[in-house]
Design brief:
Number of domains: 2
CATH superfamily of the largest domain: Periplasmic binding protein-like II
Organism: Floridaenema fluviatile BLCC-F154
Protein name: Phosphate/phosphite/phosphonate ABC transporter substrate-binding protein
Strand order of the largest sheet: 2-1-3-10-4-11
Number of strands: 11
Family: Belongs to the phosphate/phosphite/phosphonate binding protein family.
Strand content: 15-25%
Keywords: Signal
Oligomer: single chain
Signal peptide: 1-19
Length: 291
């Protein structure tokens, strides 16, 4: 998922203090239209191009008109939930914990990603063989808030006993991170296994050129979340219908970027499954915004 810098944290905190919400008043659905967005999209054109087939599938499965609501960023998606401008959102783990903290968004169903791992790579001649040996080194990552490209590799540093704020120098280089590692400008790169594999393929390299020193466990799943105004019966009804028709829904997602939903499944989920994300935010000094 695309991310923004931490400016949005402050903005969203202010919004949470001033916007009118109805989180305490659960209501049954009365509209014939379900307003829907995807947090990684920037505009209506992207929604229609990448998720038009998903919208149609949702309409058929839920037997309800589904209307796209472009929001521009996951900051805006959280605010839209808070202001009751959107009903249903497809989002990633990092975005979800922020939405949950600010809007009490309700997890409906999770969408697994079979190759959703973080890896840490080094140069072949680096002499570095473990994550713990990165103390004092420069580590390239993707961008702030990225689940697989920032929070995931940061958790791997933490698990190796390193303080991500003081023991390593993290450089947020987005797509320039792996090229920087190849040129020797950084000591390691932490990010998505999918992006790592694609870079090797595009550059005609092998793992011997940029060996992995660690591969993390599966990251928390993407998920569909609902506006907290809806009652539990409505949420369960949506969840049950999606599970019963998951083949149709999953087929509608096969063309999404990098094939990230290839081999995915729909599974039930719980808010506690995303505590790892909160743990990392806490470790990097941003815990107050996701609790």
């Amino acid at each position: 998922m695309k991310r923004r810098d931490f400016v949005w944290f402050s903005w969203l905190f202010l919004a949470s203090c001033t916007a009118a919400t109805n989180n305490g008043n659960s209501t049954k659905v009365t509209s014939e239209t379900l307003r829907f967005t995807v947090t990684e999209t920037q505009n209506l054109e992207e929604l229609q191009r990448d998720y038009g087939t998903l919208r149609i599938a949702l309409e058929e499965i839920l037997q309800t008109k589904v209307e796209f609501v472009p929001v521009g960023s996951y900051t805006a998606a959280a605010a839209a939930l808070q202001l009751d401008q959107v009903d249903f959102v497809l989002t990633g783990p990092s975005e979800y914990v922020v939405m949950r903290a600010r809007t009490n968004a309700v997890p409906v169903i999770a969408l697994t990603r079979p190759n959703y791992h973080t890896v840490i790579s080094v140069s072949a001649n680096s002499g570095i063989n473990s994550v713990g040996e990165l103390k004092g080194k420069k580590v390239a990552m993707w961008e702030v808030g990225s689940t697989s490209g920032h929070l995931g590799p940061t958790k791997m540093l933490m698990d190796a006993g390193l303080d991500p704020k003081s023991d390593v120098k993290i450089l947020l280089l987005k797509g320039d991170g792996l090229p920087a590692l190849r040129k020797g400008n950084v000591d390691a790169w932490g990010g998505s296994a999918v992006k790592y594999e694609k870079f090797l393929q595009d550059e005609n390299l092998s793992q011997k050129d940029l060996p992995l020193i660690a591969k993390g466990p599966l990251l928390p799943d993407d998920l569909f979340v609902a506006n907290s105004k809806f009652d539990a019966k409505f949420i369960k009804d949506i969840s049950d219908k999606l599970l019963a028709n998951q083949d149709k829904l999953l087929n509608s997602l096969l063309s999404v970027e990098e094939g990230k939903y290839q081999g995915s499944r729909l599974i039930t989920t719980a808010d506690s499954n995303y505590d790892m994300i909160r743990e990392v935010y806490q470790a990097i000094g941003q815990g107050s915004f996701v609790q």
